[in-house]
Amino acid sequence: MTDFTQQLNAIVGESYVLTSKEDLDTYGQDWSRLYSPNPLIVVKPGNTEEVSEIVKLCLQHQVAIVPSGGRTGLSGGAVATNQELVLSLDRLNQITDFNPVDRTVRCGAGVITEQLQNFAEEQGLYYPVDFASAGSSQIGGNIATNAGGIKVLKYGLTRDWVAGLTLVTPSGEVVSMNNGLVKNATGYDLRHLMIGSEGTLGIITEAEMRLTTPPKEPTVMLLAVESLTDISNLLNHFQAQIDLMAFEFFSHAALEKVLAHRELKAPFGDPANYYVLIEFECGDESAMDGAFAAFESAAENGWLVDGVVSQSNQQAEELWQYREGISESISHYPPYKNDIAVKPSQVGEFLEAVDQFVSANYPDFENIWFGHIGDGNLHLNILKPADLPLEDFKAQCAKANPEIFKILQSFNGSISAEHGVGLLKRDYLSFSRSPAEIEMMRAIKNVVDPNNLMNPGKLFQ
């Protein structure tokens, strides 16, 4: 261990090799908070070459590596539980090589999502992948989990904005993938294999990211809704009437948590069972007229009971707080989270089926629903009762998981929409992937990382 540490010191400098218990605990876990961190050491390289040297050293000593970004994931993908080296990419935080013609920019893996958003804005452009953790999540982690967020409906996933990647392979070789090309029909696009691979096939150190034109006057409408069927009707109705950027939903129980945590005023005088938040572009009066017409016809059909529309960017941000503050407001319970997906048309039926199961079998558990309903991505959060020990709570949730996933499987859904598989869901992969698919993924892992040193134990055993 002493020799190994000294070699790491020589690569990155002694101040970037961390061994204190506080640092090990901090960098050894993510937001899931359901596993006890147990890393060997934390190392913070400053460039791709240092990452390459660290990987070669770990291969020599057969030390496994867990890549660490903003650690905002909820599936245990960035958790080190078995004396792994935690490779923190915090220092790879430079934005360079902006090309206004190609509308691309090179980002280190440690660039904060919001940092890229702000850079794009300074250039008069827009980076559209956005979520509540944008102020702390990192681009490398976004890519490793193919993060989606709140504007997938219009702009797609992280995958759609990656023009090129720089990867350090499990052998320490540095590989550039796609090099920012729009068209490149030369065999397998390994860039897309790495996107969503959760660090199990190598370490992403840099990415060329695409930017786009900013939306015109984003406007937010918050709707109070009584039934799940109404939510599906509203999605179909508004999609046909206006060009949606986001279509989010949350339950009244979720809203209550945000109101208490952030000391906000309730958006409506009378509570509703559910709420829908819509964001759309409003570049001229005709767009707003169309949105109001859609609202009025939805009210006439009885699909909503109340609503409010933003009159400024500040009001739009205030309305977003009701949705974006949910995860933070329930984090202290701690919640048992499920980030799942079905087709948007199946959302109402699926929600009812899961609610019935939880209510019938776990009446003491509080169930908090919210999600990106426009793309079928739902977040199920089961809150730990105050008097129930954490280990007992985890055991009960683990018992419930297969039953919930059986319901999900009957809808041909996914056990993970945007947070990856990690440790939390690896034993349930078969509910979303066929045996043939899993075998193919194992074969790829075995060929690319034969020593199983890249984030081992994630995705599958």
UniProtKB/TrEMBL annotation:
InterPro entries the UniProt entry points to: FAD-bd_oxidored_4_C, FAD-bd_PCMH, FAD-bd_PCMH-like_sf, FAD-bd_PCMH_sub1, FAD-bd_PCMH_sub2, FAD-linked_Oxase-like_C, FAD-oxidored/transferase_4, Oxid_FAD_bind_N
UniProt GO BP: respiratory electron transport chain
GO molecular function, one term: FAD binding
Family matches, as Gene3D superfamilies: 3.30.465.10, 3.30.70.2190, 3.30.70.2740, Uridine Diphospho-n-acetylenolpyruvylglucosamine Reductase, domain 2 (3.30.43.10), Vanillyl-alcohol Oxidase, Chain A, domain 4 (1.10.45.10)
Listed name of the protein: FAD-binding oxidoreductase
Span of domain FAD-binding PCMH-type: 35-214
Family: Belongs to the FAD-binding oxidoreductase/transferase type 4 family.
PROSITE patterns: FAD_PCMH
Keywords: FAD, Flavoprotein, Oxidoreductase
Cofactor: FAD
